[in-house]
Please model this.
Amino acid sequence: MMHAPAAEPASHWVASWGAAQQIPEPANELAAEYWRDGSIRQVLHLTLGGKQFRVRISNAYGTAPLMLDAASVMVASAGAPRALTFDGRSSVMIPAGAEYYSDAVNMTLKPAADVAVSLYFKEAPARQTGHPGARATTFLAKGNRVNDAAWDDAAKVTRWYALSDVEVLAPRKVGALVAIGDSITDGYGVPADTNTRWPDVLAARLRDNGLALGVVNAGIGGGRMLRDGLGPNLVARFERDVLSRAGVTHALVLAGVNDLGGQHRNTPDTQADRQQLLADLKLAHRQLAERARAHGICLIGATVTPYVGSDYYHPEPENEADRQQLNQWIRTSGVFDAVADFDAALRDPARPDRIKPVYDSGDHLHPSLAGYRALAETVPLAALRKQCGAAK
Model:
């Protein structure tokens, strides 16, 4: 006897905010005193709204279980904290290497809402998991303060810890875009609490155009496609940061500056080495596209932005030629479902190997705020309206 297929639920969980996790380097670790009998309040700028949401707590790089002793959530500008629970309990043990969802919270959140998540720990983790490039203020207080609305005496840092996602319950047709890349995606140079990274500006553009799509920033400063840097290489983290996130329908990959520049800066950079690096970068992009498509995710390839004049990488003509070759391949290979030509958006027409002055932060490597806005305007909206690949 044949049974009719079960109807798909009318709603599903979709990522509204997220951050790429890494092991904080010593300068970005949170001192043990702030964890021990300490509360951490972190403000997260959502993209999608909804009537229910949940938070994903991360112990991805922990070497021992992470004990979270209490947690709460509140709209950052108003209201009182609401308890975050796990199977109805206020505390939870998250195994080493794992991430856990909170129970769903019934609270209406508007698109672009700022949510404050407060976590209380009795002890410091064996190894921390976090995201140093938060560019948002995190508040630190002694004792269990998760139920206090105001933390007037709090210390402050601009880093996130142990938080990987906020998901909202959204209609089945609503998806999310993950922007994965390096410091240009992570928002280097953006003032804290302004939400002016290019993915933030893109999220606002989508709302203005009536396109309901979550936007998750999975940039890591110093990140490379092929080799670990301050965080894991992009190919290795693609599973956690793109494929396993809830409701992802699109991803945009912007990587290559640190691969090309790093080899040029740190090795003899022979012709053979350069050709091998280009071949490896192309293969990596192909692998990402295949993996994305198998999960029903459209992959948008972004061209690598100019960086001649950079004091950090000191690129020479051969290095610039490699960037041009990689970009031409991204534009014409057909590997991607769409292309965002970030190189064309930022380059100076008079000197196309450099960032246009108005779009240059001053280091000739990272965009200015106007440059970040230009990147957001370059992402093709038509590509974000279509579906790709296999059914999820």
Notes: Residues 340 and 379 are 5 Å apart (CA to CA). The first strand starts at residue 11 and ends at 18. The two ends are 27 Å apart (CA to CA).
